[in-house]
Amino acid sequence: MLEVILGLLLILALGWGAYLWVEVRHLTITRTIDDEKFEQLVESTKQDKIELHERVSLLQIHIEYLQEENRSKSTEVGELEDKITEITSESEEKSEEIKKQKGRAASAHTSKGQILEKWCPFLEHPEIDPDWEAKNWSFMGQPIDYIIFDWRENKDINIADGKIVMLDVKSGKSQLTTKQRRIRDLIQAGRVEWRTIRLE
């Protein structure tokens, strides 16, 4: 853009110089003006030429300054783009590592839960009655982890104190599944019955 402006100024200067040259020639040939006016015109032309030359020099300095500033900004932009690429790459690597760590944590949590399920009959916990014998625990796994048969030898005591407990073992913040909640609701509502089937 500045080069175009500089070019236009040079063209104007040449045009002005040519115009003045024609005028001077015309004045010389026709000899309609006196020597004093001629000298003034020559001096004015020289002064205009000097001023034009100074303006062109200033424009060239300004163009060089703008070009240098543009190079500097281009370098800064390139450095910022490199930094953005580096940060994006690091962010993607960290995201992948976080996913891996979450997967490992979930796997470890699942493993821990499975181990706790197996050892539950031998643990002390406020929800586990200390009178429940481990041999009376039956592991089902799905959809409920255990059925505990807390029964008594004596028929009357068995009816008074015995019970059957459906127990599901959870670890951490895990919740009952929808199926487990529905089974729990049926048991709590007393919708439990006994059937014997004889097959021949």
In words, what does this structure look like?
- It is built from four helices and three strands.
- By secondary structure, it is mainly α.
- It has a three-stranded antiparallel sheet with strand order 1-2-3.
- The N and C termini lie far apart (103 Å).
Key structural traits:
200 residues; mainly alpha; 2 domains; three-stranded antiparallel sheet; 4 helices; 66% helix; 6% strand; rod-shaped
Shape: rod-shaped
Output mean pLDDT: 80
Number of strands: 3
What string, H for helix and E for strand, traces the elements in order? HHEEHEH
Number of helices: 4
- Count structural domains: 2
Radius of gyration, in angstroms, nearest whole number: 50 Å
Largest sheet: 3 strands, antiparallel
Q: Please state how the strands of the largest beta sheet are arranged side by side.
A: 1-2-3
The secondary structure category is mainly alpha
Residue share in helix: 55-70%
Q: What fraction strand?
A: 5-15%
Name the poorly predicted regions: none
Could you tell me how far the N terminus lies from the C terminus, measured between alpha carbons in angstroms?
103 Å
